[in-house]
Amino acid sequence: MQGTVDGFSYGLVTPLVAYLMACLGGALGLRCTTRSMLVAQSWRPGWLALGSAAIGSGIWTMHFIAMMGFTVRGVPIHYDKAMTFASLAVAIVMVGVGIFIVGYKGARGTALFTGGTITGLGIASMHYLGMASMSLDGKLEYNTLTVGASVVIAMCAATAALWAAGQIRGLMWSVGASLVMGLAVSGMHYTGMAALSVHLHGTAEPTTGESPAGLLAPMLIGPLAFLLLAGVVVMFDPLMVMGKPAVTPVEHKPGIPARAHDTVHHNPARLRFRPRRPVRHQSSRAPQNR
User: Where is this region: Disordered (predicted)?
Assistant: First the structure.
């Protein structure tokens, strides 16, 4: 028996809130990635790790907020907590691998493609692992082509966002990239949900049960608190907000001449041009002239 699926049982509330959470996680993660490119090597892993956790938490929170609006008529839905949090770990780790590649190799060429691909696969893996944590009296079936389209959307979105983070063009550039990333992640989620159909077993009596919101809300407290804490870090770091280093470090390497802008500029006011002294012609003191 085919189940009646409703992904918008709360109307537009859950899609909008889910989109905002994806944007928040994307914005924090991209700013951390940008920040990592402006600091010394010793600080870079910390900022990249924070960015990975922010993006992973953002897309995970987006997914399960959207799932609050998912219902199957007459069938209670439960979630396996271990698998649910495993999907969060997969998202953070795989997104982290992609971000570290771009953070150390640069947002261009093979490094960008590899990092974007791994990050996109991490987003898709989180989604479908989170769906696998859902249990009900029925079987979940997916349309292969639609699933493939959702994975491609995730990979393209991740690549575009990492490319934007590598440009280091200021706050507004990353804000725009995070809005696009949030839209793409939400689009990937609902494309994946469009591929879903539920075949009910019909072995259990229809019940109302506990709502998905009541099941998922306690799980979201930790990632939401982390995103708020990461937001505080961003707000109180002027260099993070501006996206530009206060002082451009100058590298002095032996055998390499200094560039024009690395030379020391003297104050013109301190330069004094002294007039040349007139040359005096002394009379010859040769013996024959005495």
Answer: 257-290
